[in-house]
Amino acid sequence: MSGWRRASVAVSLAALAGVVLRIRGIGGAPPQSGGWRELSGDEMR
Amino acid sequence: MQVGLVGTGIVGLNVARELCGLDSSLRVALLSGTPARRETIAGALGTQVIEQGGEAEACDVVVLATPDDQQVARLPGLLAAGVHVVCTADAPLSIDQLLAFQDDAIDARRSVVIGAAMSPGVTSLLAAHAATLFDRVTEIDIAVSGTAGPACRARRRNAMSGSTMERRDGDWAEARSGSSRELVWFPDPVGAQECEKASLSDPRVIDRVVPDLAQLTVRAVRTDAKRTLRHPPTDPLGAVRVEVRGMRDGGSATTVYGMVDRPGAVTGALAAAIVPLLVEGTPAGVMGPAELGQTTRLLRWLKSRGLKPATFEP
Fold first, then answer.
1. Residues of A in contact with B141 (CB under 8 A)
2. DSSP string of chain A?
3. CB within 8 A of B113, min separation 6: which ones?
4. Average pLDDT score over residue span B19-23
5. Which of A19, B132, B193, B214 sits most deeply, having the most CB atoms within 10 A of its CB?
6. Chain A residue numbers touching B180 (CB-CB < 8 A)
């Protein structure tokens, strides 16, 4: 019985992790600083 | 100079518009399309557009803006006619098929530029330019968002299934398209988008100008088939992001470039900008835009047309 309980807990945690990753995406920590700026003409020489 | 244009869809219209802006003495011969469509384009762009086109032989350069398979089918005839060719085809299979015309292009002493599109054309230019900032480049990761016309959208949907080739640990390896979902930050206003591995031709084209990378990948934003079928947008905003890593001044470094605009407009501007380079004289053969040796000139041209190459500063 405890085996079933452990298995169901593991499946639930895996599903929860899947939902979180699905919603938030993987590996893409938002940039905490900085930003985009247009390349200047001098940088394209 | 007379430039032939095959294809009168969103990309073709943008190419014609950009060509007319290059040089007032340039003439654009519309070599395909229904009479009504040719009349519409000629009416919109003025006397520089020759509505009834004529034969490709009369042209110095022909720009192909048709669906990919038609570009592959048309290329042998154009080389036989002795014209330079700019191809906007972007699917991996088409790129491989076009590259196979290398010997024919050399025999004809004509240049064929492939992938003259936002992806892989602009991504390869940005990657090539960023690579000049490094002592040694080890990794390039490309991300692409957005499509131009309906044919482009259909190709992107296909690109999200099947498999794709990428460089991993220095070797070519197969990856499953639609896998390895990752949030990618494009320049505003596109911003954060969820991207997945995609069967796009960017690695194939970039590998020719920045070879021997340890890692070279491409991801794309999945096209929402249901939404685009119900309300197909006309050339909405797209974006590219090129992240280059390597060694600089004895340490590891990263440079990130990006660009946001309508894919059809970007493709039109790039394809048109390549035309005068071919007339001025480029090596015979089949090559990507970044192999022309005019990377900064092409990027400056895109910038002068209102497109905005950008860099991310941490």
1. none
2. -HHHHHHHHHHHHHHHHHHHHHHH-SS-PPPSS-EEEEPPGGGG-
3. B85, B86, B87, B274, B278, B287, B288, B289, B292
4. 85
5. B193
6. 26
Chain B nearest C-alpha distance from A3 (Å): 32
Q: What is the CATH number of the domain that holds B208?
A: 3.30.360.10
Q: B165-217, pLDDT tens digit by residue? A: 999 999 999 999 989 999 999 999 999 989 999 999 999 999 999 999 999 99
Inter-chain residue contact B182 with A25, CB threshold 8 Å: yes
Dump pLDDT digits (tens) for B128-151. Answer: 999 999 999 999 999 999 888 787
**Contacting B residues, span 115-154, partner chain A, CB-CB under 8 Å:** 129
CB–CB of B187 and A27 under 8 A?
A: no
Look up the domain containing B63 and give its range: 2-117+265-311
Cα nearest neighbour of A45 on chain B:
B296
Cis peptide bond N-terminal to A30, omega within 30: no
* Residue B145 phi, psi dihedral angles, 5° rounding: -135, 135
Q: Which residues contact B287 (CB under 8 A, 6 or more apart)?
A: B111, B112, B113, B114, B208
Is residue B291 domain-shared with residue B206, that is, in the same domain? no
**Beta carbons of A28 and B192 less than 8 Å apart:** yes
A43 touches chain B (CB under 8 A): yes
Number of domains making up chain B: 2
The residue of B179, B194, B298 whose CB has the most chain A CBs within 10 angstroms, and thus the best one to mutate to test that interface, is B194
Check CB contact under 8 Å for A34 and B181.
no
Q: Say whether both B133 and B249 belong to one domain.
A: yes
Together in a domain, B257 and B125 = yes
Q: B57 and B183 share a domain?
A: no
CA dihedral A21, A25, A27, A31 (to 10 degrees): -130
